Amino acid sequence: MTDNERFGVENSYLGQTTRKAKVKNGIYFNRKTRKAFLSKAQLKSLINYAQQRHIELIPEIDIPGHDKGILKLLSYTKSGRRLKKQLVYRDGYNEFKLSKKGTLTLSKKILSEYLPLLPKGNHIGMGADEISLDNKTEENNFVKYINSIDSFVNQKGYKLTAWNDSFHKRTINRYHKNITVFYWSQNGQQSDSDDRKELIRLRTTLPQLVHHGFKVINCNFYYLYVINFPKMYTDPSRFHWKELLDKWNERIWDDNNTSDIYKGNQKIDSALCIWSEPHEKYSSSKVYQLSQEYLNEFLQHQD
């Protein structure tokens, strides 16, 4: 529902509501950011549509980092600007300070608006990716933060998902084990070799997470990411991806590394990640059409 650039769903606490919006062809636009967003009613209709087809739709709100969209919305009110001043981690990537209680309070307020839209027992996602956890203090602060979010969600009758970025080796025994982890990359796809080595040193592997009792979804970046770029949809690209997929199975989690696969007895689920990055060449219906072939191939591979 959100990414760094856009907070893409209605939220009363952040002041992005249908009442204040401009409506064009049934689409709501924030008059200040000029970006489109889903109303809560539209989100609820999508959840119901999925449920009728025995599919669980998991709304994901990216917190506590990768949050330029949230910071933008906060900047439009005096109280929001005060929060930004108190909570923003200036050296991070649009991040909130994990050491501040206000960050947890803000996160709960944002998430709480979507829980009533979900059937009891369903999941809600928090990003927990692309944040600065490079020392023991920050790691400990994050464990307290995500466990508090998980307890809050559980008490309301729901479950939590997060990405693997913030699950570190030093604190692996302290996270709540009922959090479902989407595992996309240990090295963060960093181009700098020193940055890659540091992330590999810090982050848990997929086998380690499974061994410690987590439910893990394999989203291996090397095989399972479809990104909305023109070159992705060329015939050679499709053919090459299908060839790659034939060499992959759910136990391969670290890019195309087959020497360190998961060797345990637990079943590993996987997910194809289709990222609809904005592109002037494609409408949403065109993206749906073009990406369908990738999805069909992935589903056949699963069988």
From TrEMBL:
Signal peptide as annotated in the record: none
Domain Glycoside hydrolase family 20 catalytic as annotated: residue spans: 2-279
Pfam family, any one: Glyco_hydro_20
The keyword Hydrolase is assigned to this record: yes
Gene Ontology terms for molecular function: beta-N-acetylhexosaminidase activity
Keywords attached to this entry: Hydrolase
BP GO terms, sorted: carbohydrate metabolic process
InterPro entries per record: GH (IPR017853), GH20_Enzymes (IPR052764), Glyco_hydro_20_cat (IPR015883)
The family this protein is said to belong to: Belongs to the glycosyl hydrolase 20 family.
Protein's UniProt name: Glycoside hydrolase family 20 catalytic domain-containing protein
Organism the protein comes from: Apilactobacillus kunkeei DSM 12361 = ATCC 700308
